[in-house]
Specification:
Layout lengths: L13 H14 L8 E2 L2 H8 L3 H13 L3 E4 L3 E4 L9 H19 L4 H18 L2
Antiparallel strand pairs: 1-3, 2-3
Helix pairs in contact: 1-3, 2-3
Length: 129
């Protein structure tokens, strides 16, 4: 069983869904720094995906500093790097812009969007218990 959940949605590349699933597992405490990460072969078999798709997800996660491949040993979750002041906000900037544009197009008022974000944040915290 994989240490993360993948929800495949139409229009989203499967490797992107894997990357998101891993990030969510880290955010909720299901995955931790130092944990061994599944091999391409086991991910491919369990998710019923082409191994190239799983390799692409691992490459993306490695490029982002989330995973570390140790030749001859395996793949592991990296220690979370310390972010410089303000850099986290810059990293999230594009996703925040997308969220705001989508909310405005759907007619969601700013206060309601803030409440939805608070509820989602609390929901992640609740999933740790």
């Amino acid at each position: 069983m994989l240490p993360f959940y993948v929800n495949f949605r139409p229009g989203v590349a499967p490797y992107e869904e894997i990357v998101f699933g891993v990030k969510k597992a880290l955010a909720t405490g299901r995955l931790h720094a130092g944990d061994r990460f599944p091999s391409v072969r086991s991910m491919s078999r369990e998710l019923k995906l082409n191994p190239n798709t799983c390799q692409r997800a691992i490459s993306e996660l490695t490029d982002e500093g989330i995973l570390e491949v140790r030749t001859g040993v395996g793949t592991f979750v990296c220690e979370r790097p310390e972010l410089q002041s303000g850099s986290a906000a810059r990293l999230l900037g594009e996703q925040i812009d997308i969220l705001i544009v989508e909310a405005r197009q759907l007619g969601v008022p700013a206060e309601e969007l803030k409440q939805l974000i608070d509820q989602a944040w609390e929901g992640l915290d609740d999933s740790q218990s």
